Amino acid sequence: MTGQAAELHQRATQARLRDLRMVYEARLGHIGGEFSALDILTTLYFGVLRIDPQHPEDPERDRFILSKGHAAAALYVTLAAAGFFDTAELDTFLAPLSHLNGHPDRKKVPGVETNTGPLGHGLPVAVGSALAGQLDGSDRRIFVLTGDGELQEGSMWEAAMAAGHFGLDKLIAIVDRNGLQQGDTTEHTMRLDPLADRFAAFGWSVREVDGHDYGALLEIFAATPFETGKPSCIIARTHKGHGVSFISDQVGWHHHVPSDDEYLRARAELEAQLT
């Protein structure tokens, strides 16, 4: 791994280490889904998004919405690393009166575009934002990261239908397709496949990618919009808990807090990945 991909790997590994520590110290969090999303977040914030942390309200900035808001710690470590707020504030995660709640709050955290947490809200907000940009004649892009289990919410498909109807080609939805949700696999809970065909049926242009391959992520983001007049859907194949062997693909780590031994083992694995 060389060049930009190697830099993104270093950043994402550091982010996983910080996320792990935050959840361990707070005794709450969602490490599994945060680790599956961190390579996507890192690639977006350090290789794709047109944003300026010194001007977080620039009307022509790209927008990123974390629809799976329970993965807030992953967003916080990314925003802090990108310069939206002091990294020292990460030590307050979930503490009384902290700005860094379990779900992101746009009134408290610079860089957060909309409050999310209850599932099924982020994509509808992103559709509204993309429609507003279309009406403004703006080139700003709207990126939204959804969980795959979240796609069991009816509001997501209402939003998907509207996006296709209005031809919102500045809208890019990324599905964190790790195949697991709280308690079980997505396919056992409520079957989603053939997921690409479902989005295509609503008028989206769809591609799939390895959600942990930085080069492939950069390439696919650079190719958006995939088709003029259609929203783009990227199905990112990921692993829940990616980066730590005993966490990866384990449904029990949806909101498991590591024990002392698990924390030390996970930290050692991640530190070994740094060069």
Question: How would you characterize the overall build of this protein?
Answer:
This protein has nine helices and seven strands, in the order ααβααβαβββααβαβα. It has 275 residues and is α/β, with parallel strands linked by helices. The strands form two sheets. It has a five-stranded parallel β-sheet, with helices on both faces. Helix 1 crosses helix 3. The longest helix has 24 residues, at 3-26. The chain is globular.
CATH topology: Rossmann fold
Q: How many β-strand stretches? A: 7
The first-level CATH class is given as Alpha Beta
Q: In which order are the strands of the major sheet placed?
A: 1-2-3-7-6
Helix content: 40-55%
Mean pLDDT: 97
Proper CATH architecture: 3-Layer(aba) Sandwich
Domain module tally: 1
Rg: 17 Å
Total of helices: 9
What keywords describe this structure?
globular; 41% helix; 7 strands; 275 residues; 5-stranded parallel sheet; alpha/beta; Rossmann fold; two-stranded antiparallel ribbon
